[in-house]
Amino acid sequence: MMSYEDWLERILGCARNIASRAHQEEAWKAGGDLVSSPDEVYQALMEDRTPDLFFEIYGKSLSAQQVQCWHDLKSRLTSYYDRMPLYPDPARVLEDPEWDLVRQAAARFVLAFNGQSV
Question: 82, 9, 7, 110: which is closest to 50 by C-alpha?
Fold first, then answer.
């Protein structure tokens, strides 16, 4: 198992990508240097980084704000992902006010852990 610090940094890295409209505009455009998609940001965080297990193991040692920010991000991201079509249009996602709420939740999550805005 990886260390607390490495695991948390990987989770935060995914959350920073979710919080960053600029990152998404670059990563989701056709022919860009970065390759990603709206559904990939969900999978990268929720499946690849196993944050639920992280919070199960370390949750008791975290602040109430950190845990609450995680629950908010998880809830908003999962709800959005569950409503997405199989092949979401990145341009529509970028302009969707509901996606903006996901981005804001991700920014609060990152802020809760490192005290810096994204």
Answer: 7
Is the separation of the CB atoms in 37 and 84 below 8 Å? no
- What integer pLDDT is reported at residue 1 of this predicted model? 77
Read off the amino acid at residue 108.
Answer: R
The two structure tokens encoding residue 14? 């995914």
Residue located via tokens 């695991």 = 7
CA 7 vs CA 1, 4, 49, 80: distances in Å: 9, 5, 7, 24
Distance between CA atoms of 1 and 15, rounded to whole angstroms? Answer: 21
Total-model pTM: 0.92
